[in-house]
Amino acid sequence: MYGLVNQGVHDLAVKLGGESLWHEIKSAAGVDHETFLGMDTYPDDVTYRLVEGASVVLGMSTSEVLQAFGRHWTLYTARKGYGAIFDTMGRTLPEFLANLDAMHARLSLSMPELRPPSFVCEQLPGDRIRLEYWSHRPGLAPMVIGLLTGVGELFSVGVAITHSVCSSSGADHDEFLIDYGPALTDG
Ligand code: HEM
Questions:
Q1: 185/160 Cα distance (integer angstroms)
Q2: How far apart are the CA of 104 and the centre of ligand 1, in A?
Q3: Domains in the chain, CATH or no CATH each
Q4: Looking at residue 92, what DSSP letter applies?
Q5: What gap in Å lies between CA 131 and CA 121, rounded to an integer?
Q6: Is 101:118 a contact under the CB 8 Å cutoff?
Q7: 46 and 137 in contact (C-beta within 8 Å)?
Q8: Cα 65-67-68 angle, rounded to 5 deg
């Protein structure tokens, strides 16, 4: 994956516990890169090991780490100069989710080695969306849950997510039912 992803994990670790936490995570992960370059690609294994390292050091499940990372990713990429892309991909949550493939396709222009996931979005009656998630990579569905929460925050819309089809149970993709609306906003 592009180093931008590992930089995002670094950024979240520093936010949670400073550089010392990041070093602990890297050491638990057996990752000895001093830094990651955003536009270089690294083996996926490095990212998976960082997630496992974070899970050991923080005493969280890998699923919880992936969710936290997904949520952080929307904030992080907006801050790293990708906010303008967000702005052109829809003015509402449903519009934005329908454009996730277009967004990654646009990113592919500057990141030719990107192997993005694919999303199929269907609007259901009553502020509900059915979202299929198709990926080349196993085990990242919890990250999607975090991402959807982060996207909801971007639009100041609460989301309640049901993981209705799971690749971890043998399906060939994942599927989420997303109920959204102001009434679902936390606090
Ligand atoms: C402008 C913001 C974003 C940027 C810059 C970005 C970029 C990337 C990059 C670099 C990867 C790694 C793939 C690779 O290197 O081959 C990735 C993967 C991924 N992206 Fe995005 N992304 C953005 C927003 C989103 C959003 C909002 C979602 C919402 C659902 C999303 C869903 C995913 C998922 C699930 C993956 C995991 C990879 C997989 O399943 O194979 N991304 N993205």
A1: 9
A2: 7
A3: 3-60 (no CATH), 82-184 (3.90.1520.10)
A4: S
A5: 5
A6: yes
A7: no
A8: 65
